[in-house]
Amino acid sequence: MTITFPEAILNTRQIGAETGTGTVVSVSATTLQVLVRGTTITAAYVAQYTTPLVGDLVAFTRQDSTWLVLGRLAGVGQNQVLNFSFEDDGDSGSTPSNWNVANIAGAGTARPTRTGYAPAGQFELAVSSNAAAQDTYVYSNPIAVAPGQQWAVSALASAIYPTLTLDATAALYGLWFANNTNLYPTTSAADTLIAQAVNIQAAPIHTSLSGTVTVPAATSFMRVATRSTSPASEVVLFDVVIARRVA
Asked: What predicted TM-score, i.e. pTM, was given to this entire model?
């Protein structure tokens, strides 16, 4: 196929303006951190957007390199993950409140930790097993769902490495249950992979995980699970875990 000169210009021209939606992952006095298409950007926001909250689904506009959040979208679900930034019981050294641990392989432990670069709040979830490799679910409170619903799920992940080898994997899963008291592995359907990143970046860089999941049949509750896989002596970090119904 022959590309004409005007078509070639059009194909290489950068888009100078756009509008869209994103999810707030951090709030400051003058700017927001917003997850847009898997990338976290810094945006100003209009004065009419009062009390912005982490987890808000917002409309934005971009002109060249300037991003502006116009406000929170109405008529969409808000974040249903409790203790989504692992702040509760942060100094206890134990599993964060509203979260549970299931070891798939190894003996991973999960605790809130002050990293100094948490995207939201002061703490991040730290998953490790010290001297052994680990493959660990850390999963949330039960969220009431119905078969066929669609949920948008996202989180930020990073890792602390003892060497220059980046080989940890971070993922998000949907775990499905018939009631709100069952714990893993007493599930009502197969675990669903929502998003995954291999060889994740070393802290303080955070990798965005995001995707959409459909609730399977015979399911009344979903728990969002972070899954971390790493060799010995590595620590996988998670923060800002969000689950919001979109359809």
From this structure: 0.81
Handedness of CA 159, 173, 85, 134 (dihedral sign): negative
| pLDDT tens digits, 53-110 | 888 888 999 999 899 999 988 766 788 999 999 987 777 789 999 999 999 999 999 9
In a domain, 90, yes or no: no
CB-neighbour burial class of residue 17 (10 A; exposed 0-12, middle 13-18, buried 19+): exposed
If one counts every other C-beta atom within 10 angstroms of the C-beta of residue 130, the result is: 13
Q: Structure tokens of 137?
A: 């679910």
Task: Assess whether 62 and 138 both reside in one domain.
Answer: no
Q: Both 60 and 179 in a single domain?
A: no
C-alpha 24/C-alpha 192 separation (Å) is 24
Cβ within 8 Å of residue 23, ≥6 positions away:
34, 35, 55, 56, 57, 58, 152, 154, 210, 242, 244
Q: C-alpha dihedral over 42, 36, 56, 212, to 10 degrees? A: -160
